[in-house]
What we know:
It contains 14 helices and 3 strands. The model has no long low-confidence stretch (mean pLDDT 88). The radius of gyration is 21 Å and the shape is globular. α6 (128-143) crosses α8 and α6 (128-143) packs across α10 (241-254). It is 57% helix and 4% strand. The chain is mostly helical. It starts with a helix and ends with a helix. The protein has helices spanning 3-17, 22-41, 52-62, 68-89, 113-120, 128-143, 147-151, 181-197, 219-230, 241-254, 259-266, 271-274, 278-292, 294-297; strands at 158-159, 164-168, 174-178. The chain has a 3-stranded antiparallel beta sheet with strand order 1-2-3, with no helix packed on it.
Amino acid sequence: MKLSAALIEYINYISIHEGYSQKTIKSYSRELKSYIDYLSNNNISNVEDVTFEIISEYLYSINDSYASSSLNHIKTSIRTFHRFIDDRYNINNPASNIEVHKSLKSLPVYLTVDEINELMATFNDDDPKDLYHHAILETIYGMGLRVSECVNLKLNEVNLDTKIIRVKGKGSKIRMIPVPDGSISLMKKYLNIRSIWLKSSSSNKPYFFINHLSKRLNTVYVERLIDRTVTKTSIKKHVTPHKLRHSYATHLLEGGADLRTVQELLGHEDISTTEIYTHVEEERLKNIYMQCHPLAKKEKK
């Protein structure tokens, strides 16, 4: 994928979906254009050819030209740009290990269990189109998929009898993810609808998610679906497919899963990527300590 095309798509996305001010959008656009110009001057024009090393070289080249706060902003711009491309097209993110000063790090935005329930309750499963939409969001949240993994999911990768889906993640790595018991009935109902919608001449037969025209799902459709669905709820947070994935990880940790397990389920190659959720783990350990340790139970005098 051409870097220039990726930049246009990213700026269009944040302009429509992220609610940023024009000033912020111009700032992201300016910083990323300078970054892509540097890559172009080094004969790199495709997203797939960008490496951690070349990004590090770029940041080193501008280190003396900016204050630390501005450098951190540029790093954040580059990281979010590559994360967007990763989420949408499953292209390896070379910027995931670029360090940003801790003061600029923020906790991942996620929905509470009650908010997830409210979101899913907006669908009427007796309506085929609503059922289709419900199944899409349930798959992303219930199995913690990247939006690219959801739209590329194949029919033969889903086994509702064994309650396992096989997901091809970054670098074509395969991981097995359990299908929640609560999702089985919904997914089976969707498959019944799918069999009616599927045209014998369709080239999309291998894909799990197809619509009433037998067309396969795409990422833009999922993003717009979430935007529309959230407006029917009382949820005030800005919700994206990736934030449903954040919610999946957070709820697993709140329920007692450990970071290594969550790392495997999310398909993170490096545990450091999963460590954005350590705040949940720390809070859980603190609560366990307060409930179980005899000193924690002692009344203060």
